[in-house]
Amino acid sequence: MSVWLVVFILLAVGMIMGPISMLRPKPGQRRKENLRAQAAQQGVRFGLRKAPKLKTDMEDPEPTPAYYLAPTTKMQAMSTWTLMRTGYEHEGNFYRDWDWNGEYRPSAKASHLLREYLANLPESVTLISQGEAGTCLLWNEKEDAELLNVLIKLLKELQASVV
């Protein structure tokens, strides 16, 4: 067997195995898939959504992973309130660096619930909203399933505060 035949065989195997190995999910992708599957098992849906543009933003935000519960019948007629992480603390904000986007506000019960949770939410959670599209939060999925369980609990408690 000549050297060139061996080189040719190695190149052929490399050309076949290279694209196949590139199609396999990376560990980070697998972790996110597992988080999304775990959320789905608990009745929470997943999608990509764009956050509203902040006054300080120069460009439109990129789509962010959204975890949400479908709206109840009562919520379908309700105006949507949106609470966003602004990136800066201000005394006019609802809580630290969290402020309202738009004119609508949640009930007193939901506001109290939000204040309880906001102190412990990491910066990867950037938006919480509720209204005709359901109860939703935007999360960059940087943390693990332990935080996912906290976020699901928050979504379900907010949903229950409307019913």
Describe what is shown at a glance.
The chain is an alpha+beta fold. The protein has helices at residues 3-23, 27-41, 108-118, 145-162; strands at 45-49, 64-69, 81-85, 98-101, 125-131, 134-139.
Task: Describe the structure using short key phrases.
six-stranded antiparallel sheet, alpha+beta, 163 residues, 6 strands, elongated, 4 helices
Number of strands: 6
Protein structure class: alpha+beta
Are there runs of 5+ residues with pLDDT below 50, and where? none
Name the strands of the widest sheet in spatial order.
1-2-6-5-3-4
Number of helices: 4
Radius of gyration: 22 Å
Task: State the major sheet.
Answer: 6 strands, antiparallel
What is the beta-strand fraction? 15-25%
Q: In one word, what is the shape?
A: elongated
- The H/E string reads HHEEEEHEEH
Distance between the termini: 77 Å
Mean pLDDT over all positions: 92
What is the helix content?
25-40%
Topology readout:
Layout: H1 3-23, H2 27-41, E1 45-49, E2 64-69, E3 81-85, E4 98-101, H3 108-118, E5 125-131, E6 134-139, H4 145-162
